[in-house]
Amino acid sequence: MRMTDELRKALRVRVDYTNMTDKYLGDKGISQKTLDAHKKLAKAAHAYVAENRGKDELFMGWTELPYNQDEIVADILEEAKKIRRNFDNFVVLGIGGSALGPIMAFNALCHLHYNDLPKSKRKGPKFFVEDNVDPVRMKELLDVIDVKKTCFNVISKSGATSETMTQYLIISDLLEKAGENVKDHVVFTTDAAKGNLVKISKKLGGVKSYVLPDGVGGRFSELSPVGLLPAAVLGIDIKLLLKGAAYMDKLCKTSDLKKNPALMCATLQYIAMNDGKNIGVLMPYSDNLRTVSDWYAQLWAESLGKNVTLDGTPCNVGQTPVKALGVTDQHSQVQLYTEGPYDKVVTFLSVGSYKEKSPIPHGCEDIPDVGFLGGHTMEELIQAENKATAYALTKAGRLNYTITLPEVNEFTLGQLLFLFELQTAYAGAMFNINTFNQPGVEAGKKATFALLGKPGYAEQKAELDKAASDPAYVI
Ligand code: PA5
pLDDT tens across 451-465, in order? Predict the structure, then answer.
């Protein structure tokens, strides 16, 4: 797609926060006075992000990914071509920030039944992201792929994540047993110099590897080779994805709250959180955007869920992300959103134009309850339901806002994910927390090391053994 100014404008992702305001929600909404009172804080958060962008030592290298990867992108495109030529399956082995981005891009930009399509209708090999160590899942993946015809993209910044390294051990063993050279079947995405995948690569005689840059944490890595290689293998236009991110970045250069969509979202969420809205629901009205919620949940939860500010003051902040799908969850969770506690902000992801319209045929004219649907399209129906749900929530005094993608494509997805990344960085700056660390995740990783007998964790193992469950409390 060749981007012109006109096309960029037509494909601009928009934020509509009408239903967050007191004008429409009465005393349950956010007043202009409250917004004005937060302008200074928002400006300071914007300045913090602007001043520190690109700084590896602060884990803000992700801000530059739309701009500094020309050579890497060229290399990835070449490698993707080779992978498409040589393999029937492409399997990502990774977890958390090393998996949720690739899953999101696959779901958003490929056919919803991609793996079931005949080869001639797919742009790339069959695609799998193995982001768990459920033994059944591993075994059943191996039932449907032939390792001899599979490329495994092992993605791990640390190369020390038990889940990913377990998967690697299993597949390298299988490849060896099948008489294959492991090196020919793996691509690593990892740290430049540190970590176990670097050591393994050396041992195998130099595995094709991509670097997850120092200043880019897992959950901010979708626009790095973590996300770009899998996307390119699938035939996704990764240059356009990066252009979309750059466009959103440009829209967010201003510190004017009313003009900067990410800053406005962060400020509204910050105000809501301080008012006890501890739950953030993300509700895409699109199956293609369903897993944006999984990716966003990690970004928002891991970044903001902190117990101490940068100056050491205890804080316990954050908002619990909840994933919902429109319209499916209208028939499940929306009852709670409309009438339950006033503890949520609902963010709708809407689509201006779906790639399919699916006309609804006329029929059952003698049964008006059914007949009225004929002559409309499924697109009209899903959009009407989206609007109706926002209306019902607003009538019930529930905070909600809508982010609209004019259509779902690389350019709009790139905008959306950069909007969320900037929003998260701004919100973290407002709370004055370290947005980019995850000590809570590390704690669990270490406890797993101890339980499975990793050298150096004996003390923690003893402590964990003592923490066995008390029969007095087991029913
Ligand atoms: O956001 C994060 O840092 C985590 O979710 C990591 O991405 C996840 O734990 C995987 O870590 P690694 O890439 O080191 O295997």
Answer: 888 888 888 888 888
DSSP string, 379-446: HHHHHHHHHHHHHHHHHTT--EEEEEESS-SHHHHHHHHHHHHHHHHHHHHHHTB-TT--HHHHHHHH
Give yes or no for residue 150 CB within 6 A of ligand 1.
Answer: no
For 252, the token pair is 């967010």
Catalytic residue positions? 302, 331, 445
- The pick from 92, 98, 156, 196 for probing ligand 1's pocket by mutation, whose C-beta has the most ligand atoms within 8 angstroms, reads 98
Question: Out of 3.40.190.10, 3.40.50.300, 1.20.1250.20, 3.40.50.10490, which CATH number does the structure's domain 62-239 have?
Answer: 3.40.50.10490
Q: How far, in Å, is the centroid of ligand 1 from the Cα of 286?
A: 27
Question: Ligand 1, atom 3: nearest CA belongs to which residue?
Answer: 218
Give me the chain's average pLDDT, please. 95
Rounded to the nearest angstrom, the distance between the alpha carbon of 219 and the centre of ligand 1 is 7
Domain 5-54+240-431 belongs to what topology? Rossmann fold (3.40.50)
Number of the ligand 1 atom closest to the C-alpha atom of 96: 5
Q: Is the CB of 156 under 6 A from ligand 1?
A: yes
Cis peptide before 334 (omega within 30 of 0): no
Candidates 393, 395, 384, 398; CA nearest to 350 is 384
Interval between CA 10 and ligand 1 midpoint (Å): 36
Q: Using pLDDT thresholds of 50, 70 and 90, give the confidence band for residue 128.
A: very high
Q: According to the model, what pLDDT value does residue 316 have?
A: 95
Cα–Cα dist 342/337, whole Å: 8
Torsion of CA 347, 348, 349, 353, to 10 degrees: -160
Helix axes 261-274, 39-52, angle to 10 degrees: 130
pLDDT digits (tens, 9 = 90+) for 305-343: 999 999 999 999 999 999 999 999 999 999 999 999 999
Q: Is the CB of 294 under 6 A from ligand 1?
A: no
Ligand 1 atom at shortest distance from the alpha carbon of 163: 15
Q: Do residues 262 and 248 touch, judged by C-beta distance below 8 A?
A: yes
Average pLDDT of the segment spanning 17-45: 97
Query: Which part of the chain has CATH 3.40.50.10490?
Result: 5-54+240-431, 62-239
**Ligand 1 atom having least distance to the Cα of 155:** 13
pTM: 0.96
- d(Cα 122, Cα 125) in Å, to the nearest integer? 7
In three-state secondary structure terms, 345 is strand
Specify the pLDDT at position 458. 85
